[in-house]
Amino acid sequence: MAEMPMFSVGSNKKTEEAITVAKIEELFEYVRLKDKMAYGLPWNAGWTDKPYQIGDPPKIIPAHIHWKNVDAPKYAYVAIVENRLEYRYGEKGEFPLWNCPVTTNEEHIKFINDLFFQMYEKFDLPGSLKEFQSESIKEKPVEPVPSHDELPHDKIMLLKTYLKGESSDFFYDILTKRYDILMWVDWREEDDAIIRYCEDILHTGSLSAVVNDSDNKLGFDVVISYKGEKHIVAYPGKGADRNTTIITLNKVISPDYEIRFCEESDGSDTLAFLPLSSVQWDELENEFGAKKVNSLFPKISKDSKLF
Predict the structure, then answer these.
(1) CA-CA-CA-CA torsion sign (44, 91, 20, 178)
(2) By CB atoms within 10 Å of each CB, which of 18, 105, 225, 273 scores lowest?
(3) Of the residues 132, 158, 181, the one at which a domain ends
(4) Are 272 and 265 in contact (CB under 8 A)?
């Protein structure tokens, strides 16, 4: 019998309840609508709410939730694979998902079940999701921000509206809901996912990333591919970090594109970034001035401390 996980997640009134695909989808939908992360949980949590393809030959990474013990290199996963659940658990820092072994051990599964329902209860699901969905369809005029129907749909026009008013309400009520404009990165994000978020916005057709096993001190490499060239992210510490990944990505896609930080999101564990073409950045600076644009969207340099 496998060793019992040496970490307590505390009491849970839903311990006897089972994780289901439907419950995971409820959590994913809540996060999409509310932009929440699992703050305050004993294990760091993160997720990928849609499957995606990486590597050559291609590998499908399923939608999943992962947890990392903050005090030890332990990982736990529950993934949706062909509409069924797959559990993974590792105690040797097995990251990312495909490096972590599948488990059928009842103790591991119960442990992951407890972790999941701590999140499920923290977000007060499913009731909070239904309540938020109900509220979101009500007409709620926001002043001085124009109504959704009056807003320009082109993303550059939306950014110009924000630059004109510098309204925090506009940023949080409008821009944060546009995942085709802003790239949100949690400090615990999977590093290859950051490149995927960027490509989903820019649609370059040539930007991707893969995580390869390596005999270096990390045990893996994050490799960014752009225009047929491969770039290994050189992490300075004992592990990957979001700061280095974003700085490297920004350098790789330059001078065609540039990622800038959204100052309005400063102070959060989840930060917003704005990737645009260099031509689009020039357009904004020509109209509003470089000083104003930089005050809301500071440039990222090799010395930037983002997280």
Answers:
(1) positive
(2) 18
(3) 132
(4) yes
Owning domain of residue 222? 148-296
Contacts of 9 (CB under 8 A, 6+ apart): 42, 43, 111, 114, 115, 118
DSSP letter string, 179-228: TTT-EEEETT--HHHHHHHHHHHH--SSEEEEEEE-SSSSSEEEEEEETT
Q: What is the pLDDT of residues 274-306, one digit of tens each?
A: 999 999 999 999 999 999 999 999 999 988 888
Residue showing tokens 């290199």: 73
Tally of structural domains, the chain:
2
Residue 307 maps to a domain = no
Of 89, 98, 102, 100, whose CA–CA distance to 55 is shortest?
98
> Do 184 and 115 sit in the same domain of this protein?
no
Closest to 3 measured CA to CA, from 87, 110, 108 = 108
122-172, pLDDT tens digit by residue? Answer: 888 888 877 766 665 444 444 444 444 455 557 888 899 899 888 888 888
**Domain stop point among 132, 167, 196:** 132
* CA dihedral sign of residues 173, 174, 179, 184: negative
What's this model's pTM, rounded to 2 decimal places? 0.56
At how many degrees (to 10) do helices 242-253 and 191-202 cross? 40
